[in-house]
């Protein structure tokens, strides 16, 4: 519980800005990850109704978001791949986690319901390496003795654009498969050994939904919205878990954000019997010395509003809000690092 006396400086600054009002509506722009689009869109709609100010967010992928914020063509960038402290310093940016969600494998298999198919990390890596080609492969059947699996080819679907979801997915595969790490590795874009490429979570979801025998990976909210068949995974504790709020929360519960420079922290492969193995935080990137101070302040107001009032909307979409202790760290980072054109703290 945060006492009134210890509220971050940014609260007072933002309250003062709000009390001054605005003679006209202010628009701010953001671009990046498709992973958090459902919750950012819902927040933006509610925020606009409450304040009259609009947040225009383009879901172009994490790679595009990083490029655009580095070029200063948007007010803020969004990425599921966090930048290291060194990368942030070189680009003149700050970074913070906004919500936690999860990437989940999805399949299109007749007679197989949500979370009925169980895969483990090495199996998933072998499928994406092209080593397991049929759904009735003995290795898959051994994991799923009660399922009737078809003797059909596995159609692999992956992202074709620079993607934080790809980073999370390939980071996970690199943790569980030495072959994957050696042959492919982890990044927002990789040289896929095989498969159909699709742009955005939307593209992967559409390809899986329309292709019998397909397997892909999407952010969980997209799986739910498109009524895709999600897969259960064996986590690092050897437990079978399904994707969802509880398993995402379990994965994020013990993350040590306080000792993470620039909030660089990955949530893939977290220990814990209930932890989803491909959980991920999604991050916001903002210039330390923005060219448009008014827009940067409005962006901070929006994300502060989201921390204060957006938790319920996030949970409805199967995202996990950041813990209050982490929000306190984030607000302190804003106050300490975001400065105006003269180098003075923007929030003082």
Structural account:
The protein has helices at 9-20, 37-51, 62-70, 85-91, 121-129, 138-143, 164-176, 178-183, 200-210, 220-225, 245-252, 293-309, 311-316, 324-337, and strands at 27-32, 54-59, 76-79, 93-107, 118-119, 155-159, 196-198, 214-219, 229-230, 232-234, 240-241, 279-287, 320-321. With 348 residues, the chain is of the alpha/beta class. Strands 1, 2, 3, 4, 6, 7, 8, 9, 12 and 13 form a 10-stranded mixed β-sheet that branches. A 3-stranded mixed β-sheet has the order 5-10-11. Helix 5 crosses helix 7. The longest helix is centred in the last third of the chain and has 17 residues, at 293-309. The chain starts with 8 loop residues before the first helix and ends in an 11-residue tail after the last helix.
């Amino acid at each position: 519980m945060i006492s009134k006396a210890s509220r971050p400086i940014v609260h007072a600054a933002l309250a003062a800005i709000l009390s001054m009002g605005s003679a006209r509506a202010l628009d701010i722009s953001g671009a990046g990850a498709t992973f958090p689009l459902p919750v950012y869109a819902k927040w933006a709609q509610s925020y606009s109704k409450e304040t009259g100010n609009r947040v225009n967010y383009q879901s172009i992928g994490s790679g595009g978001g990083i490029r655009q914020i580095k070029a200063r063509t948007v007010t803020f960038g969004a990425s599921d791949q966090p930048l290291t402290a060194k990368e942030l310093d070189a680009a003149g940016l700050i970074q913070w986690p906004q919500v936690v969600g999860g990437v989940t494998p999805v399949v299109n298999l007749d007679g197989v319901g949500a979370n009925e198919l169980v895969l483990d990390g090495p199996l998933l890596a072998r499928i994406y390496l092209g080593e397991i080609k049929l759904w009735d492969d003995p290795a898959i059947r051994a994991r799923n003795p009660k399922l009737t699996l078809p003797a059909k080819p596995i159609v692999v679907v992956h992202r074709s654009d620079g993607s934080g979801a790809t980073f999370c997915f390939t980071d996970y595969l690199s943790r569980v498969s030495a072959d994957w790490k050696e042959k492919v590795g982890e990044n927002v874009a990789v040289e896929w050994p095989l498969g159909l490429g699709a742009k955005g979570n939307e593209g992967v979801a559409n390809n899986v939904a329309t292709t019998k025998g397909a397997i892909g990976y999407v952010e969980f909210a997209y799986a739910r919205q498109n009524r895709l068949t999600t897969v259960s995974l064996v986590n690092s504790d050897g437990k079978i878990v399904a994707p969802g709020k509880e398993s995402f929360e379990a994965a994020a519960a013990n993350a040590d954000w306080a000792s993470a420079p620039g909030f660089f922290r990955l949530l893939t492969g977290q220990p814990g019997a209930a932890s989803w193995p491909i959980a991920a935080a999604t991050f916001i990137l903002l210039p330390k010395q923005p060219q448009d101070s008014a827009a940067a302040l409005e962006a901070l107001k929006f994300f502060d509003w989201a921390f204060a009032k957006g938790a319920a909307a996030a949970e409805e979409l199967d995202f996990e809000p950041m813990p209050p202790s982490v929000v306190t760290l984030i607000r302190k980072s804003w106050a300490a690092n975001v400065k105006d054109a003269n180098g003075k703290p923007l929030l003082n």
